[in-house]
Write a structure and sequence with these properties.
With about 525 residues, this protein is mainly alpha-helical. Helix content is about 55%, strand content about 5%. The chain has a three-stranded antiparallel beta sheet. Strands 1-2 form a two-stranded parallel sheet. The protein has a two-stranded antiparallel sheet with strand order 3-5. Helix 4 crosses helix 9 and helix 14 runs antiparallel to helix 15.
Length: about 525
């Protein structure tokens, strides 16, 4: 990707995760390489040769799925390809987010550009033109089983290329596809042999959501390290458990990275290490002491998910595929199991990270475990309730995340008259992971809010009670949060706006930016 001109060049060798995010979220423009167009043209010639022969070839001169037993005569093949798009555009439910649809379209374009699908170059160009025009097909929540591709979602996208169905313009207004294509000077595609099938048969939706979830979780894992450090400091805990030599003897790379992040954030703190002053503790509670182990396991899970995503980004997923020697072969590469498994795995990691963050928040609010902090961090406990119900909200989010951690990929409902008798449910795994990531953002925001208030209350102690100053990095975080609209300590007030400001601060990366302004880059 050319970052300076915000252009992504698509060739036959696949794309990167950064390319996907640039197109899906950053509106980057797409250029097709000459190599991709040449390879696409060459593979199309193989399809044209097969189409002229009397022998049936799946997707070229036969029906689809359980209907593949019928040979389709040449005069009906354009209708066949058009019909598969129309009939498969059968999604229902709420609209899918614009960034997901753009990722879906871009990843299908990536596979088409590989030269293994047998479409004509003009189909490739039209796909790029639609994305560059900011035209987004209306795609619905339900319709993919994660096998034979994300069929209904991809069909709704393919329908736009035909000038049919509903689309959203760059102005956000939904209009008929034909109207929007005409407004941008784009000629609808007339599909030929194999092309309708090639536009539908991939794991592009679930992969796009995986790529974006990985990017979001990377930020949230660092954010959770920071809030864990704030909580440890506010509870007067010890940072000796973060020493690198302790993590070296259990050599999980994610664990070491999280511990190092927390140690950087706590550098220079005068509050840590006082865990034996008021009510002596030999050790801090698990939710504080084991923070690097839990977040670190999440980091290692994320690393595995990224490995799977990178392999998939280099893949050409279609059935049948055109091989370099001109053979057109059926295969099972459209099965979404590899992607579905890691989508479910990430939902488990996200739920556990949220769970430990909620336990730390609860500890900050409980006067019996917070080592001198007022009940619920209230200004006048009894008259004020403080953050009591903020923790309820956080607990509700965590409870939902535990339900979302139940795997989708272990389910399978046979379809297409038992021809497609085992499916991945990867699209469903991706959809629930998006909800889990949103909830994790809110959970981290509540811990941030509670820990910031707790540290502010520590700073209000008189000189004889004070045990030291905050770490420079944690002070920078609290100040940046206040500047972003997150209110400080004080009497009870309408709390939802403060929590919303904390959520925006975490989601936009402000929490990480504030810490790194002191610590330098964090893992």
């Amino acid at each position: 990707m050319d970052m300076q001109s915000s252009t992504v060049v698509v060739g036959p060798g696949g794309v990167t995760a950064e390319d996907v995010i640039a197109v899906a979220r950053g509106e980057a423009r797409i250029e097709l390489s000459a190599e991709a167009l040449a390879k696409v043209g060459a593979s199309r010639r193989f399809i044209d040769e097969l189409a002229a022969k009397p022998e049936p070839v799946y997707g070229v001169s036969t029906g689809f799925g359980a209907l593949a037993v019928r040979h389709i005569s040449p005069e009906l093949r354009a209708r066949l390809q058009r019909n598969i798009v129309r009939s498969h555009a059968a999604g229902m439910g709420p609209r899918v987010e614009r960034e997901v649809v753009r990722a879906l379209m871009f990843l299908r374009l990536k596979t088409v550009a590989s030269g293994h699908t047998g479409v004509r170059p003009e189909v490739l160009r039209t796909m790029a033109d639609v994305l560059n025009a900011g035209i987004t097909p209306v795609v619905h929540e339900y319709g993919s089983l994660g096998c034979s591709g994300d069929l209904a979602p991809l069909s709704h996208c393919a329908l736009t290329l035909l000038g049919e169905g509903d689309t959203e313009g760059p102005d956000g207004v939904v209009r008929p596809a034909a109207e929007l294509l005409a407004a941008h000077g784009i000629t609808p595609v007339e599909l030929r042999e194999k092309e309708g099938l090639a536009l539908l048969n991939g794991t592009d939706g679930m992969l796009g959501m995986l790529v974006m979830a990985c990017a979001d979780l990377a930020r949230l894992l660092t954010s959770a390290d920071i809030t864990a450090a704030l909580t440890l400091e506010a509870l007067l805990g010890t940072d000796r458990v973060l020493a690198p030599e302790l993590h070296a003897i259990r050599p999980h790379p994610g664990q070491a990275a999280s511990a190092a992040n927390m140690l950087k954030v706590l550098a220079g703190s005068g509050l840590t290490g006082h865990h034996q002053d008021d009510a002596p503790r030999v050790q801090d509670a698990y939710s504080v002491r084991c923070a690097p182990q839990v977040a670190g396991a999440g980091r290692d899970t994320l690393a595995h998910a990224r490995l799977v995503a990178d392999r998939e980004l280099a893949a050409a997923v279609d059935n049948p595929v055109v091989l370099a020697d001109g053979r057109v072969e059926s295969n099972g590469n459209f099965h979404g199991a590899p992607v579905a498994y890691v989508l479910d795995f990430l939902a488990i990691a996200a739920a556990d990270l949220a769970s430990i963050a909620e336990r730390r928040t609860d500890r900050l609010l409980d006067k019996n475990r917070s080592h001198g902090l007022p009940p619920f961090l209230a200004d006048d406990p009894g008259v004020d309730s403080g953050l009591m119900i903020a923790q309820y909200t956080q607990a509700a989010l965590v409870s939902e995340m535990k339900r979302l951690a139940a795997p989708a990929s272990v389910d399978s409902i046979p379809s297409s008259a038992m021809q497609e008798d085992h499916v991945s449910m990867g699209w469903s795994a991706a959809r629930k992971l998006r909800t889990a990531v949103d909830n994790l953002t809110r959970v981290v925001a509540v811990e941030l809010y509670a820990a910031a208030r707790a540290l502010e209350l520590r700073g209000q102690w008189d000189e004889t009670a004070a045990v030291g100053e905050q770490a420079p990095a944690t002070r920078a975080v609290v100040e940046a949060a206040h500047a972003a609209g997150v209110g400080g300590a004080g009497g009870d007030r309408f709390l939802a706006p403060d929590l919303a400001a904390a959520e925006r601060f975490v989601r936009a990366g402000g929490l990480v930016d504030a810490a790194e302004s002191v610590t330098g880059p964090l893992a």
